[in-house]
Amino acid sequence: MFHVVLYRPQIPPNTGSIIRLCANTGATLHLVQPLGFALDRKSVRRAGLDYAELACVQVHANLDRCRAALAGAPLYLLETDGTVSYAQAQFAPGAAFVFGPETTGMPAALARHWPPQQRLYVPMRPGNRSMNLANTVALVLYEAWRQNGFSGAGPVAADASAGRATRAPGGSAAT
């Protein structure tokens, strides 16, 4: 339904959390190389990224190839100096949300090519630098999904024997 694009992600646990988030929301994750970590099975499992088996993850050699794979999808760039709050934007199914590297954000040379109305930010208190990448992805992705009626979600049922919530038949599995 939606796409999350991580441009040159650097921190494996952030990417692991985002993979799990994408698995649970039905979003496709696009990783744009180079990555700050290996994607081999041993490295991925060690970083907690083994949830990738439940998510659709695509790796692209560069941003141009990622854009080509997303042809026709509106691309929203999330950055601290965006021009529109994510809470004011209207998201249609198929929208893609692009996030820059955790330590530097999207390079200005790339960011300036986004139309101002598609350069989003998450409101924060003055003087704060940024939010954690995985938290920002969660806020934006769930807002987009909420705007579209949580399409594809199943009801959550209580599992008394395990003491946790699980998906009812027909919904996604949760652990």
Oligomer: single chain
* Name of the top-level CATH class: Alpha Beta
Q: The CATH topology is what?
A: Alpha/beta knot
Tell the overall outline. globular
Spatial separation of the terminal alpha carbons: 22 Å
Spell out the CATH superfamily: SPOUT methyltransferase, trefoil knot domain
> Please, what is the average pLDDT?
87
Describe, in short, the structure shown.
By secondary structure, the chain is α/β, with parallel strands linked by helices.
Tags for this model:
175 residues; two-stranded antiparallel ribbon; Alpha/beta knot; 5 helices; alpha/beta; 26% helix; single chain; 7-stranded parallel β-sheet; disordered C terminus
Task: Note down, in words, how this protein is organized.
The protein has 175 residues and is α/β, with parallel strands linked by helices. The chain has a single domain (3-167), classed as 3-Layer(aba) Sandwich (Alpha/beta knot), CATH 3.40.1280.10. It has a seven-stranded parallel sheet with strand order 3-2-1-6-4-7-5. A two-stranded antiparallel ribbon has the order 8-9. It has helices at residues 12-25, 41-46, 63-69, 108-111, 133-147; strands spanning 3-7, 28-32, 56-60, 75-78, 84-85, 96-99, 119-121, 156-159, 164-167. Residues 166-175 have low confidence and may be disordered.
